[in-house]
Specification:
- The chain is of the alpha/beta class and 305 residues long.
- Helices cover 44% and strands 23% of the residues.
- The protein has helices at residues 5-17, 20-27, 31-45, 61-83, 100-117, 130-138, 198-209, 223-231, 241-250, 278-293; strands at 50-53, 56-59, 92-98, 121-127, 144-148, 156-164, 166-171, 179-180, 190-192, 217-219, 236-240, 253-258, 265-272.
- Helix 5 packs across helix 10 (278-293).
- The mean pLDDT is 89.
């Protein structure tokens, strides 16, 4: 017997969403129907495609091997429908992760854009550091993630959205700057996201290049909280300039010029290779449209400003 398209769709969406119930909701099917299709798929292939991890289903080693092939079949079917002009409205759920600052600046407009163009498309949102989001993407807990300064991962396709300008910032009361070198901040209290976040990696690389080790490096998971503590004069931090723009204009917080300078971090939309769907591409397109309207990022390298 051969697996059917219906069985492969049940398998792919259960893998993406982590449960039979979520897959059934996405496919507009009864939960027992999806369970039956998964059982038939496993019986036909003679392997177990899922393992249970608490309340979540994870791909087994055999399931991991099957997943890429199943995605290719589903995507080719979607392309056939497009060529035949029968795509229909996008619907279902896309699990999307993004950093806190990107969500605050861009998410309202992205949601409005998608609601206008694809009213039946739903997002399940996860807000975390870029490094955490990369891990969730690789573990099939997310379909799509907005990543800052992503690592070189062979399993993830990256679409660059722009570059994020970040800088050392501190309250005027700390009397730092206007130019700072690693030695100038060695004894200053510094707040950063915990390792192995992109922010922590950029900071420690900057100090290490000068053979300097900061003595007071404290961790906080929320960039909005770090920004508040900077405004209160508690510490200095390396933060996105757009996040601090209102207080930089007021003069209560100062942007410090770094020597050596930090390169602007790439901000990318990432999804697993072989995991693209029309729904995922629609969310990426919405983010690109919004970034064309909101000056949150600098243009990607090599593109016109």
């Amino acid at each position: 017997m051969r697996p059917t398209i219906a069985e492969l769709e049940a398998f792919v969406w259960t893998a993406r969403l982590g449960s039979v119930q979520s897959a059934a909701r996405h496919l507009f099917l009864a939960q027992p129907t999806v369970s039956l299709r998964l059982k038939s798929l496993q019986d036909e292939l003679g392997v177990r495609v899922f393992e249970r991890s608490g309340a979540t289903l994870r791909l087994s080693p055999d399931g991991e091997q099957l997943f890429g092939h199943a995605i290719s079949i589903i995507e080719e079917l979607a392309r056939m429908r497009e060529r035949a002009g029968s795509t229909g409205a996008l619907h279902g759920t896309v699990k999307v992760g993004m950093p806190e600052t990107f969500a605050v600046a861009c998410l309202p407009r992205i949601l409005k854009d998608l609601a206008a163009l694809h009213p039946m498309l739903r997002l399940e949102l996860s807000i975390a550091t870029s490094t955490q989001l990369e891990d969730e993407l690789r573990e099939h807990r997310l379909d799509l993630a907005i990543l800052v300064h992503p690592s070189d991962g062979a399993a993830i396709r990256l679409v660059e959205l722009g570059r994020q300008e970040a800088a050392w910032v501190a309250a005027e009361s700390l009397r730092l700057g206007p130019i700072v070198r690693p030695a100038d901040l060695q004894d200053c209290q510094i707040l950063t996201n915990p390792p192995p976040s992109a922010m922590h990696r950029q900071i420690t690389d900057w100090f290490s290049a000068a053979d300097v080790k900061p003595r007071r490096l404290d961790f906080c998971t929320g960039q909005m909280v770090i920004a508040h503590l900077v405004r209160e004069g508690v510490a200095a931090a390396f933060l996105p300039v757009k996040l601090m723009e209102p207080v930089l204009v007021s003069g209560s917080v100062i942007k410090l010029r770094s020597v050596p300078e930090f390169p602007h971090a790439a901000v990318c939309a990432g999804h697993r290779i072989g995991g693209a769907t029309a729904e995922i591409e629609a969310v990426i397109a919405a983010a690109q449209r919004v970034l064309g309207q909101v000056p949150f990022l600098l243009p990607p390298l090599g593109s016109e400003a």
